[in-house]
Amino acid sequence: MASRNQSSASEFILLGLSEKPAHETLLFSLFLCMYVVTVAGNLLIILAISTDPQLHTPMYFFLANLSLVDFCLATDTVPKMLVNIQTRSKSISYPCCLTQMYFFHFFGIMDSVLIAVMAYDRFVAICHPLHYTAIMSPGLCGLLAGGPWVFSCVVSFIHVLLMSRLVFCGSNELPHYFCDLTPLLRLSCTATTVNRVFVLTVAAMVIATPFLCILASYTRIIATVLKVPSAGGRRKAFSTCSSHLAVVALFYGTTIGVYLCPSSVRTAVKEKASAVMYTAVTPMLNPFIYSLRNRDLQRALRKLARRQIAPSS
User: Fold this and answer.
1) Tens-digit pLDDT profile for the chain (313 aa)?
2) How many CB atoms lie within 10 A of CB 214?
């Protein structure tokens, strides 16, 4: 431990998305707007669902959890980047780096598992509508929502423990805008085999497995919907899943490329572009995707807006 303290880096330099001042000014304005929209959109979804008794159903319960996780995921990475750009200081201390990495993986894992849980909810609602209430009981919903929080906590803590045993004696420049696992592993002077094996194991559990479960759920859903005799019934069934499918495509399309593709085809630029998608773009778009074609949620949002306007008028 003493040798690690003597030789290992005490801080890292986050190079960010661009090193050109003109680009950084544009990036600051863009990401500040995106973050404000993310915070407002996800908090409005949570408030609308929590204050409207008609939305106290499993589907909206999971959506409220997803909105909370999206808000936290964006908050873990974007504000630090904005502060770095504004202050012209790109350093982050070693403990803060590990803390940021912990919460990034905590909420990233939560996002992935919750999206799979929501697919299961749609599967039960469409394939077993008569037994939906019995299957999606409050106890099961609590387990499906609470279990991922515990699982994410444990896995993220192991990531941090494994990272804390590494020595960083070379360059401390991180070609990223936040502390992520793969760029940090490249800077290590010591063997990272255990870390990389654990990363692949976790990726298989929290990315590949949920994605396969989602594919299986929607295979059954499509087979069931195609048996519906009326065209209107088929359209209604598919419309309840379209928003979720858009979120699945956004989230898994980027995370699979970062954590499951061979390192030979990954570059720092591709990793940063993918990270922007699932830490900033996806959390910002999710509230719009889920509310765009959801009349119940639109009604709840209008009701919430009227309640806020009425006292001030």
Assistant:
1) 444 444 567 889 998 887 777 788 889 999 999 999 999 999 999 999 999 999 999 999 999 999 999 999 999 999 999 999 888 888 999 999 999 999 999 999 999 999 999 999 999 998 998 999 999 999 999 999 999 999 999 999 999 999 999 988 878 888 889 998 888 998 998 889 999 999 989 988 998 899 999 999 999 988 888 887 877 777 777 777 778 888 888 888 877 766 666 665 567 777 788 888 888 999 999 888 888 778 888 888 888 888 777 655 5
2) 23
Alpha-helix residue ranges (DSSP H) falling in 16-93? 21-51, 58-87
Amino acid, single-letter form, for residue 262: P
3-state SS record for 173-213 = EECCCCCCHHHHHHHCCCCCHHHHHHHHHHHHHHHHHHHHH
Rg value, the chain, Cα: 21
Q: Decide if 279 contacts 38 (C-beta within 8 A).
A: no
| Measured distance CA(48)–CA(60) in Å, rounded | 10
Exposure on the CB side of residue 208, measured as CA atoms within 13 A: 11
- Identify whether the C-beta of residue 58 lies closer than 8 Å to the C-beta of residue 142: no
Provide the β-strand partners of residue 174. Answer: 14
Burial class (CB in 10 A: 0-12, 13-18, 19+), 295: exposed
How are strands ordered across the β-sheet holding 11-14? 91-93, 11-14, 173-174
d(CA 74, CA 53): 28
Sequence letter at residue 310:
A
- Confirm if 176 and 14 have CB atoms less than 8 A apart: yes
Strand, helix or coil for residue 12:
strand
Whole-number Å distance between alpha carbons of 273 and 268: 9
List helix spans (H) across 89-180.
Answer: 94-127, 132-135, 138-164
What does pTM read for this prediction?
Answer: 0.88
